[in-house]
Design a protein that fits this description.
By secondary structure, the chain is α+β, with helices and mostly antiparallel strands. It has one domain: 2-Layer Sandwich (Alpha-Beta Plaits). It contains six helices and ten strands, in the order βαββαββαββααβαββ. The strands form four sheets. It has a four-stranded mixed sheet. It has a two-stranded antiparallel ribbon with strand order 2-3. Strands 4-5 form a two-stranded antiparallel ribbon. The longest helix has 10 residues. The protein starts with 9 loop residues before the first strand and ends in a 9-residue tail after the last strand.
């Protein structure tokens, strides 16, 4: 079947073997999207395990998981939270009434209330860039090339190839949300929550 007949479904792989904890994902996201001080759409949790001199630092980049079964979409009383056909989960800021139901329903702590706009906010996979053929700012600026974004429905895409060739994990699979952000080489027993 030709690829152009299939609907795109976007996702991200974060290869923890390559993440150096530089925070360029967080900084580039803030700059690209005008994210206010004190809140983040993309961030990196860090933890250290072990005793000196055998100490290991673990990094876990985090963002909205653009879930297939997004609880934030289900609980929104005014349908301001929605999922596009390509899988990107967004907030219509014109419809949002600021109730915060979506913020508390997210098991990944990926949403927050914008103090300036009084509406829910979150990672958008930089939909404005994706819609113009680009990639999210966090992916473009990742110095370790640990973030890979693309069409999960295209078996020839880099993201699909990485998923087929590597064991991948998602955060909190028991929630049943079917996250579309996958991790390579994650040991969630060692990673920060």
């Amino acid at each position: 079947m030709p690829q152009e007949n299939k609907q795109k479904k976007y996702g991200m792989v974060i290869d923890l073997r390559k993440c150096v904890g530089c925070m360029s994902c967080s900084v580039s996201c803030k700059m690209e999207n005008g994210v206010s001080f004190g809140v983040f759409r993309s961030w990196v949790n860090m933890t250290e395990k072990g005793d000196f001199p055998n100490v290991k630092r673990y990094y876990q980049p985090r963002l909205c998981n653009h879930c297939e079964n997004a609880p934030c979409v289900e609980v929104c009383p005014v349908k301001a939270s929605y999922k596009r056909e390509d899988g990107i989960v967004l907030v219509d800021k014109e419809k949002c009434i600021g109730c915060g139901y979506c913020v508390v329903s997210c098991p990944y702590d990926a949403r927050y209330m914008s103090k300036t706009q009084k509406v829910a906010d979150k990672c958008t996979f930089c939909d404005h860039r994706v819609d113009n053929g680009g990639e999210p700012a966090c992916v473009k600026n990742c110095m370790g090339k640990a973030r890979i974004f693309g069409d999960l429905n295209d078996p020839n895409s880099k993201i699909s190839q990485l998923i087929s060739l590597n064991a991948v994990q998602v955060i909190k699979p028991e929630q049943g949300t079917k996250p579309q952000v996958f991790y390579i080489s994650a040991d969630f027993n060692q990673q920060p929550k």
